[in-house]
Write a structure and sequence with these properties.
Keywords: Cell membrane, Membrane, Sugar transport, Transmembrane, Transmembrane helix, Transport. This protein has 20 helices and two strands. By secondary structure, the protein is mainly α. It folds into two domains: 149 residues, no CATH class; 177 residues, no CATH class. α7 crosses α8.
Amino acid sequence: MAIMQKIGQNRYLQSIMRGMMMVLPATIMSSFATLLKVLPIQAYQDFILKHNLAQFFDIPINFTNNFLAVLVAFSVAYTLAKSFDVDGFTAGLISMISFFILTPYELGEMGPLGQAYSIPNTWLGAMGLFTGIMVAFISARTFVWITKKGLIIRMPDGVPEFISKSFSALVPGLVILTSFTVLSATITINELGSVHQIIYGIIQAPLTDLGAGIGSVIIVSLVAQTLWFFGLHGHAITLGIVAPIWFAMDAAQLAAFSAGAPTPNITGFAFFMTYTAGDLLPLAFMLAFMARSQRYKTLGRISLPPAVFTIGEPMAYGVPLVMNFALAIPYILLNSVLLAAAYYLTLAGVLPAVAGVMTPAGMPVIVSGFMQGSWKIAAFQFVALFIRFAGWYFFFKIADRIAFAEETEEERQALIAEQKRAREQLESEPSSEVSA
């Protein structure tokens, strides 16, 4: 637990997760634009084709999902710098400029306004995500070091804050941008390709291959649920480790889905969240409508509405599921079973691959399946609720029997205590009359 807590509190993993959450509105916008573009209704698609509207859906997609690495270069640097109590916005801005410095560009024809430049979007989306994260780490950490050492231009008191921040950023900005320019030039001169190609080939592609298998997904699920069992936020710890890999896979998945091309992955963040959605909903239903224990009945009725929106904390800490060995087996294992089933059904072609859509937090189960691009995924989620019900039922009955017995014993002890007090009161009344 101590090791997992330390991992979960790691400043750099937290900056990745928080940075990813910062760009969530952009990825959700891209997801909705993609769904509206490919909505499988023939009359709707005929209308889109007739009026050539697909190009307008591509605009938000290109500048959100296909621009993800640029956004992450800013957001991760911002959150990392803020964790050191320095100016996060300036650190993020310098990181984003550094990312563009490392990105290959093409020269166009000379026009009336000078030389034209264009940046292919190859490295601006999923394929450049790891470069964006690494640039964010290096530039933000350098910015923090220079700032903390006091190697900045300080303006006198009374100078407006925005002007003071601009001057204080000059020295770290010059150092960081110059360093990345020299690095980019060195790689280009020596015909080594680009920093993006090097990082993608050495780090991102191998990690993606490693993270794409069902084995890694099940390991993440088992570790996350085990940590939850011991009272730690398992998803915050485990998903923080795999987030760069899975988010990059989702971005590539969504780009392919939007373009109508074959999707490159089965797993990813969207796969994990889609097929673990509704994990505690059957248990909440059982607590509310099938429990003999009054405590569980009350808790179930309180927990059922949040459970519909995939919020399980009331049950995790209210049942509790934490350190509850009667419910440990389904709590830890059920998600892994259904993830494995979904993976092999997708591999066999029974289920389509998820579209990589980033759904908003609290999206109800089944609705989230439809948002991944197919009714078949929603149908699997529906069937999975009954599988989860069957998996929970035996263990729920054991836990409910234990809770009911505890309540019965408490009521019996309370009744005995009340009878004892009544007896003592009756015995004391005659002696009181004699005394009088």
